[in-house]
C-alpha cells in the first residue's frame, strides 16, 4: 500500500470513529494507532497543562516506556509546535536545540520527529507527534497528514458535551473532557481516590510521568524511582504508600537518594496513616468510620488560646495602621477564632464570609463556592482567617479565587498550622500555634459535628465502630 493510500485510509477511519458510541479515550487510542500504522512511526498524543507550559504523554503507540517516563516536557523548549502553533519537523534530533532530551531520543532510536498542534476553540491543548527511526525529510504530504490527524483529535473533543465548568478562567477545554481522555490504569485504589481529590480541588496532575535513575553500573541504570503523581502547577511530585510507616524503609531510602541526586526536585511522601487522615478530613476512608469518644488530652487551654489570639490581634493592628482591611472567614470552623480575634483588633475593619462545598468521595465533581463574599475586594487589603491549615489544598483554592478579584494585598491568618501534613507550600502570615501531627477538636473544630463548643482545643479518643 502506497503512502497516499495509507494516509487516506487512516484519516477516513479516524473520522468514522468520531460517530461511534465509544468513549473518548477509546477513540483517541484508535486514532493514534491508525496514525502510527499509516506513517510507520511511533506516535504519541501529548496534552498541555492549563498554564500552557508543560506537555505530557497521554496516549502512545510504539514508544518505549523509558522514553515516556523521561519527564514532563517544556512546551517552550521541546520542538515548539505548541508555542508557535504550527506543525514543526525536525530531521536530526541529535543536532537540533529544540529537542529537550536528545540522549533519550538516541537511546530510543529516534532520528526525526514531526509535531502538529491540537487546537480546541482557538487554543492549543496538546500535540500529536510522530517519531521516526530513520533520518527523514518530512514531505508536505507527511505534514498534511499530521495536521489532519491533529484536527480529527480536536473534533473528538468537540463532539463531547461542553457544559462542565472549565479547568480555570483562562482554559477553554472542559475539565471533564480532559479527564475522560486520560489513558490511566491506577495500580492501587488509594491512587484512584487521591486523583479524585485532586480533581475536586482543580489541581492538575499527571500519573507516573517520570522515572528517576538512582544507581548505575557503568552506563546501565540498575535502580530507579517513579513517583505516583506530578502536579505541574505546583512543580511537585507525590508518592503514596499503603504500607505502614515502619515497613517502608526501602522507599524512604530511595526518596533520600532522589533528594540527594536531584536537589531541585520537590517531592512529598504520604504514608498510609497520613493518607487515611487526609481522607477522613473529608469524611472518606477507613478512619471516617470511627467515632470520637471523649477527650484524651487538652492541647491548648482556654487561657492559652485567649493569650495567643490577643497577640495576633495586636500584630494585625500594627500591620494595618492606616488601612481598613477585610477579614474573610470560611464557614464553619473559624467562627470561634474569628469572633474573638475581631473583638481585639484595634483598627477599623470589615468582615465577610464564604462557604465551600467539600470533597465527599467518588460522587464529588469539583469544589464549588456555595456562598461567595458580599463585599467588593478589588483594591482592598484582604486577610483570610482560617481555623487550621494542614495540606494547604483547600487554602490554595481559596487564595487563587481571591487573587482573581485583584485585592491590594492578600494575607492569611490561621489559629493552627499543621505543617507536617503540608502538600502545597503556602506562606502563612499570622500563626497562632504550630500544631503537632494530632487530630484536634474544640474551639470551633469538630469531629462529625461534635465538640465545636469546647472552650479549649484537645485530642479526642478515637474508637473504631463495631
Question: Helices and strands in order, then pairings?
Answer:
Elements lengths: L2 H15 L6 H16 L2 E7 L5 E8 L3 H4 L4 E2 L6 H4 L3 E3 L11 H7 L3 E9 L2 E10 L7 H19 L16 H7 L7 H12 L5 E2 L4 E6 L2 E6 L3 E3 L4 E5 L8 H13 L5 E4 L1 H10 L8 E11 L1 H18 L6 E5 L4 H8 L7 E7 L12 E3 L9 E9 L3 H11 L5 E9 L12 E5 L22 E8 L2
Q: Your description of this structure?
A:
- With 466 residues, the protein is α/β, with parallel strands linked by helices.
- The protein has three domains: 3-174, Beta-Lactamase (2-Layer Sandwich), CATH 3.30.450.40; 184-270, Endonuclease, Chain A (3-Layer(aba) Sandwich), CATH 3.40.960; 295-464, 3-Layer(aba) Sandwich (Rossmann fold), CATH 3.40.50.
- Helices cover 31% and strands 26% of the residues.
- Strands 3-2-1-6-5-4 form a six-stranded antiparallel beta sheet.
- Helix 1 (3-17) packs antiparallel against helix 2 (24-39), helix 1 (3-17) packs parallel to helix 6 and helix 11 (302-319) packs across helix 12.
- The radius of gyration is 26 Å and the shape is elongated.
- The model is unreliable at 162-172 (pLDDT under 50).
